[in-house]
Amino acid sequence: MANRLGNETSPYLLQHASNPVHWRPWDAAALAEAVEADKPIFLSIGYSACHWCHVMEHESFENQAIADVLNEYFISIKVDREERPDLDQIYMNAVQMLTGRGGWPMSVFLTPQLKPFFGGTYWPPTARTGMPGFDQVLRAVIDAWENRRAIALEQSEKFAERLQEIGQAQDSGETIGIEFLDQAFQYLESIYDFRFGGFGGAPKFPHTMDIDVCLRYSRRRPDSRALEMAVHHLDQMARGGIYDHLGGGFARYSVDARWLVPHFEKMLYDNALLAGTYVDGYRVTGRADFARVARETCDYVLNYLTDESGGFQSAEDADSEGEEGKFYVWKRAEIIAALGEVKGYRFCEIYDVSESGNFEGSSILNLPQSIEDWAAAHNLDAAELRSELDSERATLLRIRGDRIRPSKDDKVLVSWNGLMIDSLAKAAGALNEPKYLAAAEKAADFIFDSMLDSSGRLLHTYRHGVAKLTAYLDDYANLANACVTLYEATFDDRWLERAIDLTNLMIRHFADPVDGGFYFTADDHEQLIARNKDLYDNSVPSGNSMAAVVLLRLGALLGNTDLVDEAQTAMRVAAPLMKKHPSATGQMLTAVDRYVGPAREVVILGDATSGATRDFLTELRRTYTPNSVIACTSPDSLPDDDSPLAPIFAGKTPLPGSDGTVFVCENFACQRPVTAEEAIANLHP
């Protein structure tokens, strides 16, 4: 039997296409084969940028002896978690129930009816350092299946029942109020690392959703430490090794407490979320270094993770030439040879490059102190020093470009693209960078041109001309939210119309009309052993939280209280989790912040491309107003009664002789209209 992965589009699956294991993709044929042969399924789930997935492949899946056992006793199925997050959610829950922890590679043994009875993550091929060997695990599972099957089946039934329970949640009936935000911030403050930044200890993840909660909360409670925490967190990451000081962009997480040593893979979703959060950090503080990090992160995605068709690709690997991080680290002698002794020694001192190194004999570039502090300590002009360092970093980037670059997962995922489109559209206005808006629109156009099925519904993944797999809740919610942001960046009605269409499809196919909230899979999706409601943030915001956000934004723009009610129900479904696990529900807490208000509708009659209206919009987009929605049109082209925007523009007329009229409504009350010039002054009283 030949390995069946060769015709797949996923780079992760293709990496395993030459393994001696008789891998199958997850499809009807493989599942039927398990039933017919009465064999257990070995389900292996990972992703292309996963370091330990590569290790297990090399050690075990390229091992002929292990492959022979898998081929004889199991139906082996390989799944890309990024293509099939529905499967990943279900079986990750199972592994966490079995072992108390999770991660990738995920290794799960299923009955032919797809119910898990044993699982784990990475196993070495043979026992070492207290870990059982994969060979031992296989023998134990075979023994259980052949000699104690009744026990295995009974266990699988219990797990399946529990998985179905975990996936359900219902309207709690709780009143959504400011106390959710107060309690959440108290918890975040209690776990914050005021020395190195971040929430909790090592390993440390960016936690962008929690930073967003702190930025929002700082406006509500200026006397709290919320702004201090958010700014400190952003500062520490930007100075750490988790940030690529040459090419821009962030690695997935830091293995240590001080953000020095990253897990070197660079994921689209991290960089999408972080770009937007640094834009907001810049809006709140006016700090130029936050704007620079946001810009460099956006540029990284445009330079290295953009498909020629305009879609954004998924990830760059941690490894190159078989070594983790080899592409990114430096020897002191390399830098001195490139920059000369004087500049080279200075660069090494500033960026923590030593003879002994800070990572396995080499050095990860990082800033133990800020460039401004270093300049002050050495009586140098900070702006002049930064300019010189920029030139030196460009030199090193060119040299690094000659190295063998890590492999790339070039598939395009709608959900992650939605996050990136949203951040680029936001960055375009805040940073006055039109190329970001152009890239965002091109990516969105690509999705609508190339990633819809014949009925107009989204497909989840695209690679090399092939779009496939029915889309999930977060595909619809993230892209709809991005389309709202594109409307506010361009005032092109087509983006609003697309946001409305996507939201209607999301409600029709994913909403639970009985218990509230949204399922992760559509009502006509492949039937699995559980249908989950995605409520917890992981590396990306949960589907329900993004649904709540876009429902609130659209509800405000369209004057549609039904959408607001739908969002309120989703928040009530998540209410017990927000109370119990606030650090895992940050995006839903941002929805609560918007819902509790004050929220503003800013309506403008004027030419968005010229004069005082343009100037007002420029200032507005640089200002941190997270709970506002914005609509703009020329007084000569007010929407007709059939337009979805008719309610927000109803009854509004321009002030005589004004070059733009601004209307601000807040908490169901509208302020007097003002000229665009006066509105600018009101932004910065």
Number of strands: 18
Quick one: overall form? globular
Q: Radius of gyration, Cα only, in angstroms?
A: 26 Å
CATH architecture of the largest domain: Alpha/alpha barrel
Written overview of the protein:
The protein has 685 residues and is α+β, with helices and mostly antiparallel strands. The chain folds into 4 domains: 11-167, 3-Layer(aba) Sandwich (Glutaredoxin), CATH 3.40.30; 178-322 and 408-596, Glycosyltransferase; 328-402, no CATH class; 600-683, Glutaredoxin, CATH 3.40.30. The chain is built from 26 helices and 18 strands. The strands form 5 sheets. It has a 5-stranded antiparallel sheet with strand order 7-8-11-12-13. Strands 14, 15, 16, 17 and 18 form a 5-stranded mixed sheet that branches. Strand 5 and strand 6 (262-263) form a beta hairpin. Helix 5 (85-99) packs across helix 7 (149-166) and helix 17 (414-430) packs parallel to helix 19. The longest helix is centred in the last third of the chain and has 20 residues, at 561-580. It is globular. 50% of the residues are buried. The model has no long low-confidence stretch (mean pLDDT 95). Residues 3-164 form the Spermatogenesis-associated protein 20-like TRX domain. One of its GO terms (biological process) is carbohydrate metabolic process. This is Thioredoxin domain-containing protein. It comes from Blastopirellula marina. Pfam families: Thioredox_DsbH.
